[in-house]
């Protein structure tokens, strides 16, 4: 048994509620190895609310004596509990998924589910999600003034996440992801500032800034011998501007880039209907030989209909399916069928959210073309990319 008393005073706190004692002890050991001190309980009634309200993570078994996990989540919802929750269960994966959704609908911060018997890799993958959710929660919401100030003072920065060719296992491109650097040096993730930028009319300025900065980095890498593609996220609102294709063409010519290698990732495609000019713009971007990708495929915002409407060359399967593939048969089927649909339509298929070697192996076996995810690399700054992928190879 791991000696948790050797963990520091300020170690993070986990609460495990599971009446299967061996499983709870196994989980306690895994928690200790990731720096959490865990308290174990066999029944929900034994836990003082102050304990789980102040915990850094709560592992909750679904099948418990007296009050089961789903009933307990209802109580937690009433207490406005914001502790990250990981559900554990020996039930079929569709029941676990339904319980995860039920918890989220009660306003709880449910990170995901672990199906018993789970592997250390399953545990690690969920803890990675937990840590990134914690980083996100720690970063402040950005006000319109902060957004304007960040644009004025060049504190919007593209980070780049590599995409790999899953057959050759080589880097084939990078996706640019926006980051806002606060005056104190902290990095804010896009979910915390993109909604503000769009609401206060700075969305187009943000997109254009990201394009220019990413193209600049990309040209530098190309000058040093790389032939990677570059993907940039373009919101539908930018496409409402009919001049966007001409403006992008000018930029591409100025930077002397191969347009096919510039991939414009389009999300929120359901909004196309509210922006009649966006379809025009997409068609003209296709005619000008820029590459278009359907991002987050399979989620509410990106459906089969879009594959019929958009002149795209790439389909990116949403990470929620990819990271659940090993725990949930439904997600696995969705991933496999999305790859088939993409290939039948002549598209390159990219899987987002690869978090383990098992994900890589499964996706390769399914014939997926490209992959992206924390297991390969987290998004990194322009300088880090040059050091890791260019200077490193040259050395
Ligand atoms: P996206 O375009 O689908 O980008 C992928 C997101 O998944 C990134 O989050 C990336 O860090 C995250 N991710 C990658 N691999 C993994 C993994 O293995 N596990 C998990 N859990 N997550 C992974 P990020 O950077 O926070 O961006 C979130 C979203 O914000 C993006 O989703 C995109 O829709 C939007 N976004 C990012 N940059 C821009 C931008 O410049 N303009 C616009 N309009 N939207 C942007
Ligand atoms: Mg994207
Ligand atoms: Mg995506």
Can you characterise this structure?
It is a single chain. This protein is of the alpha/beta class and 395 residues long. The protein has two domains: 3-138, Rossmann fold; 144-390, TIM Barrel. 44% of the residues lie in helices and 20% in strands. The chain has helices at residues 21-33, 49-53, 69-78, 93-105, 120-138, 144-152, 194-199, 203-223, 236-239, 244-255, 276-287, 304-309, 319-324, 329-344, 357-365, 382-394; strands at residues 12-17, 36-41, 57-61, 85-89, 110-115, 156-165, 170-181, 187-188, 229-234, 262-266, 291-297, 314-317, 348-351, 370-371. The strands form two sheets. Strands 6-7-9-10-11-12-13-14 form an eight-stranded mixed β-barrel, surrounded by four helices. The protein has a five-stranded parallel sheet with strand order 2-1-3-4-5, sandwiched between helices. Strand 10, helix 11 (276-287) and strand 11 form a beta-alpha-beta unit. The longest helix is centred in the middle third of the chain and has 21 residues, at 203-223. The chain is globular. The protein starts with 11 loop residues before the first strand and ends with a helix. The model has no long low-confidence stretch (mean pLDDT 89).
Salient structural properties:
single chain, 395 residues, Rossmann fold, TIM Barrel, eight-stranded mixed beta barrel, 14 strands, binds ligand C2E, binds magnesium ion
Spell out the blueprint of helices and strands:
Blueprint: E1 12-17, H1 21-33, E2 36-41, H2 49-53, E3 57-61, H3 69-78, E4 85-89, H4 93-105, E5 110-115, H5 120-138, H6 144-152, E6 156-165, E7 170-181, E8 187-188, H7 194-199, H8 203-223, E9 229-234, H9 236-239, H10 244-255, E10 262-266, H11 276-287, E11 291-297, H12 304-309, E12 314-317, H13 319-324, H14 329-344, E13 348-351, H15 357-365, E14 370-371, H16 382-394
Parallel strand pairs: 1-2, 1-3, 3-4, 4-5, 7-9, 9-10, 10-11, 11-12, 12-13, 13-14
Antiparallel strand pairs: 6-7, 6-14, 7-8
Bound molecules: ligand C2E and magnesium ion (2 copies).
